[in-house]
Amino acid sequence: MADDLVVHLARFAGALREHGVPAGIGDEIDATNALTLIDLFDRDEVRRAFLVAFKIRPRDRAAFDATFDAFWGVSRAGVRPMQPVPGRAGRAAIRGGRAAGDVPLAPGRDCDDRRPSGGQHPGYTPDAVLRRKPFEECSDRDLAEMERLLARLTHRWAARRSRRLKPVRGRRGVPDLRRSFRRAVGTGGEMVRLAYRARVLDEPSVVVLCDTSGSMDVHVRFLLAFVLALKGVAEKTEVFAFNTSLTRLTPWLSPGRIVQTIERLASDLPDWSGGTRIGESLMEFVIRYLPQVVSSRSVVVILSDGLDRGDTSLVAEAMQAIRSKARRIVWLNPLAGDPRYQPTARAMEAALPFIDRLAPAHNLESLERLVPELAGM
Q: What's the mean pLDDT in 344-363?
């Protein structure tokens, strides 16, 4: 699929050149690299990436847009996108802002509505399809495939550099003038050797509380796979499961063996896929673990649909206590992937005033979006 995409991109660059828009080999390479950094399903994002990669000038914008629509757009009734029409008539049509026979996609509409099954169209790789597949439609095989994608994702997060600088040996980083002047005192005011500082690797501190009740059953395996991947690169990750009670999972976790670990948890964890008492469970966390595992540098991530059978008045009390200690609180709710979702469940209403971000967690793509936020928190 990747080869098909590169070929399609090369043909697109050729069409640009045919219609008078400069597009060199270096621009094609830049565009190929850009596609690895963006969401291939977002047509507007692809367009913006190509505008930069091909260095499109204002006078070439109309021809670029028409060529882009011809190659990367969609026609009605499921008809394949039209290729640019060769010859003088075709070039004139594109310069006029529209390829002959092409029906551009409606403004603002992205590629979600034109995703073919199986990802067989150029640009729709199996990985991209899996990233957008709802968890309730995923199989055990999909879960195994996600291990590879999650490992790549979390290792990029682990390599993120902090804004903090610390003294380093050698000539790397930036000069540390204050330490350099202090050193110069011992050499009669002569600055013989500069001192340097460099950015350090962040040591993220994440505390995860995962709802394993029956209403979360179709999602929990994939959410725990995400948590296990985080645990594999961030030693300061504490993981808890809750349903009718709270269980600390951290000693049970085996990064790199996601499927086996989740199967063992499902068979050994008390009341897995049973009822849920969010308030009582969060309060148990506050009483037993909060001072030890949560600090002012911690991000607390709660994975739950907010459907509670217990005392929801305890939810607000527990969330307030967590809020007083944590740096940020993120609540991931699989139901929030539906655009019609409203957080009207009683537990969610009680928790909302103390949450920094309520985000969806219904597919791998939604979890990927969280990782840069965790890194920036």
A: 92
pLDDT tier at 164 (50, 70, 90 boundaries)?
A: low
Measured CA distances, 147 to 67, 143, 152, 332 (Å): 38, 7, 9, 20
**Same structural domain for residues 31 and 121?**
yes
User: How far apart, in whole angstroms, are the C-alpha atoms of residue 239 and residue 143?
Assistant: 20
| pLDDT attached to residue 156 | 58
Backbone torsion region of residue 271, taken as left when φ is above 0, otherwise alpha when ψ lies between -120 and 50, otherwise beta: left
Number of domains in the chain: 3
Q: In what order do the strands lie in the sheet with 328-333?
A: 246-248, 237-242, 205-211, 298-303, 328-333, 357-360
What is the DSSP-derived secondary structure letter of residue 63? H
Q: What is the 3-state secondary structure (H, E, C) of 252-301?
A: HCCCCCHHHHHHHHHHHCCCCCCCCCHHHHHHHHHHHCHHHHCCCCEEEE
Beta bridge partners of 174: 197
Which residues are registered as beta bridge partners of 241? Answer: 210, 247
Residue 142: inside a domain: no
233 and 334 part of one domain: yes
Q: How far is CA 183 from CA 8, 96, 186, in A?
A: 59, 68, 6
Residues 243 and 356 in one domain: yes
**What distance lies between CA 179 and its chain's CA centroid?**
40
SS3 357: strand
pLDDT tens digits, 247-270: 998 888 765 566 677 777 777 777
Beta strand 328-333 with 357-360: parallel, antiparallel or unpaired?
parallel
User: Is the sign of the CA dihedral 34, 129, 338, 104 positive or negative?
Assistant: positive
